[in-house]
Amino acid sequence: MTTFANQKMRAAREQQNMTLEQLGEVIDVSKVTISRYETGKRRPDLETIGKIAEALQISPLDLIEGDTMTVSERYQLTLKKEVLKEVAADLVGSLTNYVINNNLHEDNPLEILLDRLSVIENDRIIDAPNHDELTKIEGYLDEMSEFIDELLTASKDGVA
Question: Is the pTM above the cut of 0.90?
Answer without folding.
Answer: no
